[in-house]
Design goal:
It comes from Amycolatopsis rhizosphaerae. This protein is mostly helical. It is about 85% helix and about 0% strand. The protein has helices at about 5-20, 20-30, 35-65, 65-90.
Length: about 90
C-alpha cells in the first residue's frame, strides 16, 4: 500500500468516526472532552449562587442583618459545594 492510499483510508476512517461519534472524535483530536449541557447548567447555577451570595453578604453587612449574612455564606460556600459534589458523584 502506498502513502496516498493509507492517507485516504485514514481520512475515511476519521470521517466515519466523526459521523458516528462526534464526542469521541473531538476527544481524540483535541485531548479533552466536549462540555455537556448538564455541566454548563451546573456551572451556571454555581456562578449564580455565588453572585447572589455575595450580594446577600454585602446587603447583610450594610444593614447589619445576621439572617442575610448567614444566607450569603450558604449561597457562597454551601450551594456551590453541594452542586459540585452532586455533579461529580452522579456523572462520573
Amino acid at each position: 500500500m502506498d502513502f496516498r492510499e493509507e492517507t485516504r483510508q485514514l481520512a475515511e476512517i476519521q470521517r466515519q468516526l466523526t459521523k458516528e461519534d462526534p464526542a469521541l472524535a473531538r476527544l481524540l483530536a483535541t485531548g479533552r472532552p466536549a462540555a455537556s449541557a448538564d455541566f454548563v447548567i451546573v456551572l451556571g447555577a454555581m456562578l449564580a449562587s455565588f453572585a447572589g451570595g455575595l450580594l446577600s453578604l454585602l446587603l447583610g453587612a450594610l444593614v447589619s442583618s445576621a439572617v442575610m449574612l448567614v444566607s450569603g455564606v450558604i449561597l457562597v460556600a454551601v450551594v456551590p459545594a453541594v452542586l459540585a459534589t452532586w455533579r461529580f458523584r452522579w456523572y462520573r
